[in-house]
Amino acid sequence: DAGVIQSPRHEVTEMGQEVTLRCKPISGHNSLFWYRQTMMRGLELLIYFNNNVPIDDSGMPEDRFSAKMPNASFSTLKIQPSEPRDSAVYFCASADGVGANVLTFGAGSRLTVL
Amino acid sequence: AQRVTQPEKLLSVFKGAPVELKCNYSYSGSPELFWYVQYSRQRLQLLLRHISRESIKGFTADLNKGETSFHLKKPFAQEEDSAMYYCALSTGTYKYIFGTGTRLKVLA
Prior knowledge:
The structure holds two protein chains of two kinds. By secondary structure, chain A is an all-beta fold.
């Protein structure tokens, strides 16, 4: 298995533009997480899906952020419109179940909003 | 409230010196605790978990429920240990609470 696959690895965009980040979890994993990593706040959970259903989106900062998981092998995180303060590394992670099960992270998408 | 605290943003040690990365947690139940590591230009990956009670790359971590700590230790640091280290707590649900991370620099 190639692990959790994220794209793009790097995105530079201008304020106001739409950004779409993509994630392919490990096959068979039924839990998917989107995290945001910044120097100031570390890793923050944005949204959690279980069996493709959003369970907790309380970490999504604003209505500008949305996430979908149309099937077990694909998820997107969209920011529209983007702002400079959205600049961060966005990680997708998947797990087989939850609790003591280990999170497997993707390589991350580094977003820079000018 | 559930919280993981890593008091040091940066820890610099010389090669061969002992290392201790501090992690304290706040949780009223029985936590599952993890250490994740992110080497330069690599993805975040599991280093060790407390239920395994194993040593990985020379690192160990013991859960101290009295002090609510899960410090990461290594007796002799190596340059390849330089990385970002995150302590994480799982409450048994989907909630993994991460600390803000400690950057370890091992100096030659």
